[in-house]
Amino acid sequence: MTAQTPTRPDPAVIPFEKRRFRAAALHYLDGRPAYAAGLIDRLVQLTKLGADGRVLDLGCGPGQLAIALAPHAGEVVAVDPEPEMLRIAAENAAAAGRRIRFVEGSSADLGPELGRFHLAVMGRSFHWMDRPRTLERLDGLIEPGGAVALLRTRNPDLPENAWSPVFDEVVERYAADDPARRQRKSPGWLRHEAILLTSPFSHVEFIAVLERRQRPLERFIDRALSLSSTSAAKIGDRTADLAAELRTALAPFAVDGMIDEVVESGATIAWRPAG
Questions:
Q1: Which of 135, 174, 213, 237 makes the best surface tag, with the fewest CB within 10 Å?
Q2: Which of 189, 49, 170, 50 is nearest to 121 (CA)?
Q3: Helix (H, G, I), strand (E, B) or coil at 110
């Protein structure tokens, strides 16, 4: 009998880790920058999302995108594998008066029972999925003329963001032991655009909105703790040390406890090729 060669893990796919965001969920909304309202409006316009359109928010987290898109759609289905994220999202949706269907699951659970959608959005979540396989599954769910959109925020290299490299240096030291973060930041990691261009959704456009904002210094502690690689569950008894180091490192950038930042809210939108 011939021995089978063990299947090697795909270096482009981060292994699924159940409950990875359980501790991060508590800090997510306070720490992560909100998506610009102007970006949401432009996304709705470009994808021609209408009042009868259905939206899938895949990896919805605490519901930022699902809640923002609900007024523009007929129905929003929000999916996430972390129960704590779904609990927070449901509370926020109820407080905002938005009716959203929340489903516990991952990209591996996508199937026809969810129905067809005009738009599928993923905010800061696509890199946690088997990206090619997820797009294949979405090809069976997105209606003709529909789109997939990947949303993110970042702090571009501008004078107002002089604090950002200092923040990143502290976070990187505490995240150094996380294999998933090392994998995603390795030279061989493919950008999302490369995955999209070889997928059924290979017509790709990018839009962005820049905004000046102010945030309390303490919210940057939440930002670090909202990262799964530096969540309290991941770094354990070093959590207080991380918070203290960030307060000291960011203090020179704060005025009356507030830090200026420029946030770029961006969306990569992908359609099937015309014709």
A1: 237
A2: 49
A3: coil
40-66 pLDDT tens trace = 999 999 999 999 999 999 999 999 999
Give the chain's count of helices (H) and strands (E): 11, 8
Query: In sequence order, which ranges of 48-158 are alpha helices (DSSP H)?
Result: 64-69, 83-96, 131-139
Half-sphere exposure of 273 (CA within 13 A, CB side): 7
Answer whether 148's CB lies under 8 Å from 269's CB: yes
CA distances from residue 216 to 126, 136, 228 in whole angstroms, order as listed: 29, 42, 22
Q: List Cβ neighbours of 78 (8 Å cut-off, separation of 6 or more).
A: 56, 57, 60, 63, 66, 86, 89, 100, 101, 102, 103
Q: Where are the alpha helices (DSSP H) in the chain?
A: 25-31, 37-47, 64-69, 83-96, 131-139, 164-175, 179-184, 192-197, 217-225, 232-235, 239-250
**What does pTM read for this prediction?**
0.92
Cα–Cα distance between 185 and 172 in angstroms, integer? Answer: 11
The structure tokens listed for 20 are 């990875």
C-alpha 76/C-alpha 72 separation (Å) is 10
- Domain ranges, ordered by start, for the chain: 25-271
- Interior CA angle at 269 toward 264 and 274, to 5°? 155
